[in-house]
Design goal:
Length: 176
Amino acid sequence: MISIEHAKQMAKRLRAVLKTRGQEITHSTALELIAQQLGYQNWNTASALLHPQTASPAITFESPIPLLRMLDEAKAREFYLGFLGFHVEFEHRFEAGLPLYLGIIRNGLRIHLSEHHGDASPGTTVFVPMHNIELLRDELLSRQYGYGRPEIVQQGWGKVLEVHDPFGNRIRFCED
């Protein structure tokens, strides 16, 4: 795809080539000619529709996905799916009877749970920035989970709602 910058370079080269042949044109005329060669009515239309040149490839990151250790599939499902309201995104086992690797999601928050020994250590803490923390607290309390009644703690920088899974992992939902 041709960028605005590329089209401008084409106009500059066109002027230079024509000048060597004794035909001088203005930069504006060169831009108009290039726009027409690219199929646009005029340079204004071309410059409005052409994309800017993309920078050279840069390192970019996507949202991280925390990986938490689970030791019991039934307890993990009860806590993460039943209590916290996540949904299964995928499940993977190399074969029946081997450890489970489970991807769960809720409103864009992805967590991976693993029974594999080396994947993660129980006792991990995950910090989750969010909005409407009171709504989450009220939803969780309404489920009357037998192993936790989360409450919001006011910090100097914002609010924290911390839940503990059956494996010693902590999820700190935070709102500033």
